[in-house]
Every structure is written in structure tokens, then in C-alpha cells.
Design brief:
- By secondary structure, this protein is mainly α.
- Helix content is about 75%, strand content about 5%.
- The chain is built from 7 helices and 4 strands; from the N terminus they run αααααββαββα.
- Strands 2-1-4-3 form a 4-stranded mixed β-sheet.
- The radius of gyration is 38 Å and the shape is rod-shaped.
């Protein structure tokens, strides 16, 4: 909004806008050079943070699985205790049976409860093995987190040191960039930023030197060079899509 208001207040000529674009490119290139000092650190920090988030999610998932196995273990133990109580009751009833039919029926109930105990104890062993396995996984994940946390802290510290050191220069260049942007309409700024994202080294605006594009080094026809020097309109390199401007040094000569 500030940029739009500024361009509305002052009617800059096309040549002034083109030169402002050129100035903006030089400033952005200086900021790019400063950012190169950071190297791959920003990406490495982001990757480590993403990995840490993934590991923490895994730890939460493992803990939830352990909790579920503990709940099932308690449930099965209650079932075993209940079955033993029922077996004790059935055995007491066997002492008071009136015939073989009742005795056989109670015997079957006892056998059924004993099978239930056997099945529950089998499940308890499986749960115990599962908990043991999950705890090993948990220790491994927590160890990995501790190692990655050390790496992340070191890289963050290094990155923060570089940013603190370069912050004054970046702030100065950003202030200069704001002045240049105030002379450029929004449409041109959008096009400039789009080209910067799509070309090598972020060079969206290049000069014509020795009759060639300063970006892709393809030859520029004489008539097109004349149009560029006049600065009446935006001229785009037909080969690489960069904005072409006259070389100020050659213009002065």
C-alpha cells in the first residue's frame, strides 16, 4: 500500500522507473551476497527442526502405544483374577452337587475359566513383549532427539551469530531498497520479483554490455539496443526473460 501511494503522489517517468529497477537489483544482489555467507545453514536448521518435530510425534505415538498396552495388561489381569475367583466358587459347588450331571456341568465351567486364564496369560506375555519392544524404540527415539537437539542448537547459534553480524548492513540495504521501490509501480515490482525467483543468481535486471545480454550473453540487435538506451519502455531479453537496461557506464561514456 505504501508503494502504491508513493507512486501515485509522484509521476515518475518510465526511464526513472527503469533506473529504479536497476538500483533495486544492485541492492538486492548485495543482500543476496550477504545471505550467501549463511550458506546452507537456514535449510539445515529447518531440516533439523522438521526432523525434531517428526521424532517428537513418533515419541508421542510410542508412549500412546505403551499406555494402551498397559491398559490392556491391567484389563487381562483383572480377567485372570475374576476367573480364579469363579474357579474357586465352582469347586465349592462341586462339593455340594446332587448328581453326576451337575458335577460335569460345573467341571466344564471350571475348564472354560482355566482356558480363559490360559488365553489371558498368553496375551499378557504378548503385551509384556510389546511394552519391552516399545520401550527400546522409545529410548532410541529419545537418544536421537538428544543428539539432534545438540546439532540444532549449534547450527542455530551459528546462524544467529551470522545474522546478528550482518543485520546492520542488511537493514541499511533494505532502507535503500524501500526508496527504490517507491519509484516503481506495483505491476513492475511483481514482474521483477517473479523473474528474480526464476533466474540464476536472482538477476532479474541486467545491463547490455558489448552488444549482449548481461544475463544469458546472447547478442542484442542494434535497434533493440537503441530502444533500451532511450528508456521509453520495459525491454525483455527474448532469450532469458530478464529486464534489459542500458549500462550506465557506457551511457556516460
Amino acid at each position: 500500500m505504501a508503494t502504491q501511494k508513493k507512486t501515485a503522489e509522484v509521476d515518475y517517468s518510465m526511464q526513472e522507473r527503469i533506473m529504479a529497477l536497476y538500483d533495486l537489483q544492485k541492492i538486492d544482489s548485495k543482500i543476496d551476497e550477504i545471505n550467501k555467507v549463511k550458506g546452507e545453514l537456514p535449510l539445515e536448521v529447518q531440516d533439523l527442526e522438521d526432523e525434531m518435530a517428526g521424532l517428537k510425534t513418533r515419541i508421542d505415538h510410542i508412549n500412546a502405544e505403551i499406555e494402551e498396552l498397559n491398559t490392556l495388561t491391567k484389563q487381562r489381569k483383572r480377567e485372570v483374577d475374576q476367573a480364579k475367583i469363579m474357579i474357586g466358587n465352582y469347586k465349592e459347588q462341586q462339593n455340594n452337587v446332587r448328581n453326576n450331571r451337575e458335577f460335569d456341568a460345573i467341571t466344564k465351567e471350571i475348564e472354560y475359566q482355566e482356558l480363559e486364564i490360559e488365553l489371558a496369560e498368553k496375551r499378557l506375555k504378548e503385551y509384556a513383549a510389546g511394552i519391552k519392544s516399545k520401550k527400546v524404540q522409545l529410548e532410541d527415539a529419545e537418544s536421537h532427539v538428544a543428539e539432534r537437539n545438540i546439532d540444532l542448537s549449534a547450527k542455530k547459534s551459528e546462524l544467529e551469530g551470522i545474522e546478528a553480524e550482518t543485520a546492520p548492513r542488511v537493514a541499511e540495504f533494505e532502507a535503500q531498497a524501500a526508496i527504490a521501490k517507491s519509484k516503481i509501480d506495483e505491476r513492475l515490482l511483481v514482474a521483477y520479483n517473479r523473474i528474480r525467483r526464476n533466474v540464476r543468481n536472482g538477476l532479474a535486471v541486467v545491463t547490455v554490455r558489448r552488444d549482449a545480454c548481461g544475463g544469458c550473453f546472447n547478442r542484442i540487435p542494434p535497434q533493440r539496443q537503441a530502444d533500451i538506451r532511450m528508456g521509453k519502455k520495459i525491454i525483455i531479453c527474448e532469450y532469458c526473460g530478464r529486464i534489459l537496461v542500458a549500462d550506465p557506464e557506457e551511457t556516460q561514456e
